[in-house]
Amino acid sequence: MSQISAKDVKDLRDTTGVGMMDCKKALEETGGDMQKAIEYLRKKGAALAAKRADKEAREGMVIIKIADGRKVGVILELNCETDFVARGDVFSGFAGALASLALEKGAASTEALLALSLGEAYGGETVDDAMKTMTGRLGEKLELKRLALLAAPDGVVESYVHPGSQLGALVQLATDKPQEAADLAKDLAMQVAASSPIVTDRSAVPADYIEKEMDIYRQQALGQGKPEQFVDKIVTGRLEKYYQEVVLSEQSFIKDSNARVSDVLEDFRKKHQAQVDVKAFVRYQLGQ
């Protein structure tokens, strides 16, 4: 067996990020050949990924990257098994690399991102293979749970990530004055993160959601002994409250509980003589 030097072990560790003992073993198993040792570690990572496939990956982080000019943004959730790994630089660096790659290549789905190749820092592997390699490096299952891309060629994209990186929101505004709308977009991203709307306006609430809520309210009213002739009015009132909870434009504004988001948008239009509308938003909360 060839003599394995400490320098070779260190070089392999610097290249792969894998622990010293695993690097030493890889070099021993491959006769000191650096490239073969790297491949050995990759295969070991793939084997470990297969072994841990049934494990639950509920920890991790939500990360957002926005392009210069604030016209395109990407949000993704990358999961691992433990909070200890999630808080480490290796995991967060990998998550950042994935988000940057998705933004650079315009990947709008996990499937699209998994097929792309990372740079030299990750051996030029596809994201799919790099996930397996990273499993070998970290000793935990990794899962790219979800990803979304928002583009605003005629507007602005802004974001908010709550401290701890377990909650984040991305908002797309259509506006003819994107620079003036930057602060508004940030406020709305924070609004989405804090208040968890499901749609931008009332017309977008799915019909089956409305039917389900109305049935619940009707059964509640009847169960409380309300007279039949008043039930419809009660259902309508409760449905209005439901809209105020789930429709972004009808929610109370987080910076002024006396105003609705729709009021804030209208104030912006009047103040800046500008057009502005919320076109889309994405909210990710870890594990939800």
Can you walk me through this structure?
It is a single chain. The strands form 3 sheets. The chain has a 3-stranded antiparallel β-sheet with strand order 1-2-3. A 3-stranded antiparallel β-sheet has the order 4-5-8, covered by helices on one side. The relative contact order is 0.12. The protein has helices at 6-16, 20-29, 34-51, 83-86, 89-105, 110-114, 127-138, 182-195, 207-223, 228-246, 261-272, and strands spanning 59-66, 72-80, 143-151, 155-161, 167-175, 252-253, 256-260, 276-285. The protein is α+β, with helices and mostly antiparallel strands and 288 residues long. A hairpin with a 5-residue loop joins strand 1 and strand 2 (72-80). Helix 9 crosses helix 10 (228-246). It is elongated, with a radius of gyration of 25 Å. 48% of the residues lie in helices and 20% in strands.
Key attributes of the depicted protein:
alpha+beta, 11 helices, three-stranded antiparallel sheet, elongated, 288 residues
What's the layout of helices and strands?
Layout: H1 6-16, H2 20-29, H3 34-51, E1 59-66, E2 72-80, H4 83-86, H5 89-105, H6 110-114, H7 127-138, E3 143-151, E4 155-161, E5 167-175, H8 182-195, H9 207-223, H10 228-246, E6 252-253, E7 256-260, H11 261-272, E8 276-285
Antiparallel strand pairs: 1-2, 2-3, 4-5, 5-8, 6-7
Helix pairs in contact: 1-2, 1-3, 2-3, 3-7, 9-10
Question: Can I get a quick summary?
Answer:
The chain has helices at residues 6-16, 20-29, 34-51, 83-86, 89-105, 110-114, 127-138, 182-195, 207-223, 228-246, 261-272; strands spanning 59-66, 72-80, 143-151, 155-161, 167-175, 252-253, 256-260, 276-285. With 288 residues, it is an alpha+beta fold. The strands form 3 sheets. A 3-stranded antiparallel beta sheet has the order 1-2-3.
